Amino acid sequence: MININELTEICNGLGCRIIPECYISEYVTFRIGGKCRALISINSVESVIEILRYIRQKNINYFIIGRGSNILASDEGFDGVILLFGSDFAHIEVTGNTIKCDSGALLASACVHAQQSGLAGMENLFGIPGTVGGALYMNAGAYGSEMSDIVVSAEYIDENCERRFISRESMDLSYRHSFFSGKPLVITSVTVKLPYGDPEKIRADMTECMKKRTSKQPLEFPSAGSTFKRPEGSYASLLIEQCGLKGFSCGGAMISEKHSGFVINKGYATCADVLELCGKVQQIVKEKTGFSLELEPVILS
Question: Most Cβ neighbours (<10 Å): which of 77, 111, 176, 210?
Answer without folding.
Answer: 111
